[in-house]
Amino acid sequence: MNLMEAEMTQLNDQELSILIAQQAGQLLLKLRDSYGDPATWDKEKATSLRKQGDRLAHEHLAAALAEHRPTDALLSEEGADNDDRLSATRLWIVDPLDGTWEYGQGRADFAVHVALWEPELKKLSACTVDLPAQGVCRAMSDAVADEPAFPTDRPVRVVASRNRPPVFLGPALEILGKTMAAAGITQHGCELIDVGSVGAKVNELVSGRAELYVHESGFYEWDVAAPYGVARHYGFIPSHVDGAEIEFNHMPPWVPSLMVSHPLIVDMARDALAEASRG
Length: 279
Description:
By secondary structure, the chain is α/β, with parallel strands linked by helices. It has 2 domains: 3-139, Fructose-1,6-Bisphosphatase, Chain A, domain 1; 156-278, D-Maltodextrin-Binding Protein, domain 2 (3-Layer(aba) Sandwich), CATH 3.40.190. It has helices at 3-8, 13-34, 43-68, 100-103, 169-182, 198-206, 221-233, 266-278, and strands at residues 73-76, 91-98, 111-118, 123-131, 136-139, 156-159, 190-193, 212-215, 219-220, 237-239, 254-255, 258-261. A 5-stranded mixed sheet has the order 1-2-3-4-5, with helices on both faces. The chain has a 5-stranded mixed sheet with strand order 7-6-8-12-10, with helices on both faces. Helix 2 (13-34) runs antiparallel to helix 3 (43-68) and helix 5 crosses helix 8 (266-278). The longest helix has 26 residues, at 43-68. It holds the Pfam family Inositol_P. One of its GO terms (molecular function) is inositol monophosphate 1-phosphatase activity.
């Protein structure tokens, strides 16, 4: 056992989560750098990079957890799934490369997600979102303010999927803007911003650059788990769009919707989305 391995055996769950997420992130950066200038990549080369990155990061995370948490179960986007995990008392939910498309474009808005779900407690713990190309790592052990700041000099910024935005998002944001103005919260309305992966979107919120994230077309538990825990730790309110709590370790591991909101506007945002969906 080398010094690094000896030190890793002493880490608690959150410390291990941070370490292996950052290690995977550095492997992804090194791999991408080896492909040269993104401006020179053709479609075949970008596809090769994405596939290799997914596999490399998954293998690193899976090996580290198998060695240092051998009795825990694992759910990974890139790993084989089976229903054995449904009876596990501890389940690691990882997305080795969240934002694979952005990674293959040479962009910075991709992330590594590592989270621990404890089914009996219905509790997320040890959540880490590492954004290696931005030099940012968000975790549930970070020191945070009592409540996130709210902007008074700009519109409320909203992040959503660029490919699958909520159908009623436009009308909902018009309603939300009017509701916030009537409540004396802000007169600046709302604006959409373009960000890639789920982890990168949540980072915009916890960094103070956005206040609301809405996704209604569904995705998987590995997309959601680590950002969900990090968002809550930073004082934001994550839930399904209707306000219901999200739980994990389902078969299949599907999450129908997600909303992450600044606490000041969470009820207004939910009401606006509901009103817009009714037409």
